[in-house]
Amino acid sequence: MPPYAPLWGFDDTGFFTNFTLDNYQLLATYWQDYIGPAGNSIKLAFFSTLVCLIFAYPMAWWIARSNAAWRAVLLVLVMLPFWTSSLLRIYALIGLLNPNGFINAMLIWLGIIDTPMRMMQTDFSIYMGMVLTYLPLMILPLYAVMVRLDDDVIEAATDLGASSVGVWWTVILPLTLPGVIAGSLLVFIPAVGEFVIPALLGGPDQLMMGKVLWTEFFRNRDWPVAAAIAMLLLAILTVPIIYARYQDGRDDRDADTPTGAS
Amino acid sequence: MTGRVSLPVICLGILGFGILYVPMTVMILFSFNAGKLVSVWSGFSTKWYASLLTNEQVLNAFGLSLFIAFWAATIATFFGMMIAIAFVRFGNFRGRLALSSLSSAPLVMPEVVTGLSLLLLFIGMESVLGWPAGRGVDTIIIAHATFGMCFAAVVIQARLRDFDRDIEDAAFDLGGRQPFVFFSVTLPVILPAVIAAWLLAFTLSFDDLVIASFVSGPGSSTLPVVVFSKVRLGVTPEINALASIMVGIVAASVIGGAFMMRRRLLKSDHD
Predict the structure, then answer these.
(1) In sequence order, what are the residues at sequence separation of 6 or more whose Cβ sits closer than 8 angstroms to the Cβ of residue B208?
(2) Is residue A138 domain-resident?
(3) In a domain, A260, yes or no
(4) Angle of helix A123-146 relative to helix A86-97, nearest 10 degrees?
């Protein structure tokens, strides 16, 4: 029998309710077990988004500036991981980062280190997993914006004497900002609630909300507390989700205008 | 726009592609390792592929995942197409905002939240309606179809927006009626998007671990659930072999799809 009771209903004594705020109180009482991972999730997701952006921006730029043949090849190289199970990609990463994994074996064989480095169950392994999982999601919206960028605007700025950094800061960055925002939301929102990455790559110091919810649900079988954690997770994500919806809605209206006018 | 790309950009780009591809490459390499270790090379062998083909648990889970993904994708594409048509064709109908919020919520919802809430819904439905009785293959299909539908709607919607409505009007002027016009004019034009939506929904279902874990019952372990329980015990060449096969299938489909699209483009250029 699942640990589940109806919230209200009728029995021999008449109408009854099971309404309680105890589960939220539990989250507050044991805040270091629940609110701590929440803060940790936000921190890890934020820096993961940043790292993804650092790699994705030049990658998308490279793809957008390539000629048709190269562009097709590079886009296939981005789409391939996108269509491959993230569980299997995380699994492949474990084989690389394990104490007896490929990287340590290579470094010891080359004589660079004597004892295996600890890479698993650290923030580093979490970030690697996040980049591996979410990089394509960051590249695609950036590419979509960059490929529509007008060459003449860049040329004009260069002709008027702007340095390459100046052109990027005053012209390219503002024009690609919608892609940066879209990609960051696509990475940040699922990263906060991520389960597989902290479960397989993280240790006790890399607790994230998705994993805490999972443990509460499957190991402790405390469904009400798991549901309270889900609500906390949603509360954290409310602002970015509504913002993403707003952005989406704006695109929606922009796209509708030409068809509506004709 | 094409043009020169500076060296630092290419370096960072290569590093980025390296992060995406080095783990998979090493994994595929060591799936052919004769030894049991996944970091020490001890000769070429395909024995892990052979042992995989006799692993009944993995084969059953693989079949189950294919079955679930097929039906989930089919249901998801059907409903996703209806949502897309409603959005693009029916203008500002009553409840548009509600439908668009409902159909985009699963796109941004964390998987653990979707999984838990669907499970609670299924149990609530069971106690009130008596259906779905227990949890198993059918609840996984419903869950996967639910979020796959939202992705399918997005994909089909994009294509439907570019659709030239004049050819539909021409069909009507020539005396065509719905649903004949839909099946003979509209559907063939949006078919590539419908296929893409089906493939996306199929992949999402086939790869899903979290939601399936919540809504599955005993005896309905999908492939990701089996793989996850094995991975927790450690890295083995057998899973390397399994993962390599899956990567191979995806690679073949993506590259094949890209070639087909290219040929289509070249053909339409010649016309």
Answers:
(1) B111, B144, B222, B224
(2) yes
(3) no
(4) 130
Band of pLDDT at residue B263, cut at 50, 70 and 90: confident
Q: Domain of residue A135: give its range.
A: 36-252
* Confidence label for A256 from pLDDT (cuts 50, 70 and 90): very low
Q: Given a cut of 50, is residue B199 above it in pLDDT? A: yes
What gap in Å lies between CA A200 and CA A203, rounded to an integer? 8
pLDDT band at A254 (very low <50, low <70, confident <90, very high): low
pLDDT tens digits for range A71-121: 989 999 999 998 999 999 999 999 899 888 889 888 988 988 888 888 989
Number of domains in chain A: 1
Q: Has residue A214 been placed in a domain? A: yes
Tokens coding B137: 């293959």
Residues 43-62 of A with CB under 8 A from B: 54-56, 58-59, 61-62
- Measured between CB atoms, does A243 come within 8 Å of chain B? no
pLDDT at B180 over 70: yes
Could you say which residues from 84 to 143 on chain A have a Cβ atom under 8 Å away from some Cβ of chain B? 84-89, 91-96, 98, 100-102, 104-105, 128, 131-132, 135-136
On chain B, the residues whose CB falls within 8 A of the CB of A105 are 39-40
Of B209, B123, B215, B211, the residue nearest A3 (C-alpha): B123
Would you call B219 helix, strand, or coil by DSSP?
coil
In whole angstroms, what is the distance from residue A227 CA to residue A42 CA?
A: 19
- Domains of chain B are 59-243 (1.10.3720.10)
- What pLDDT score does A250 carry? 66
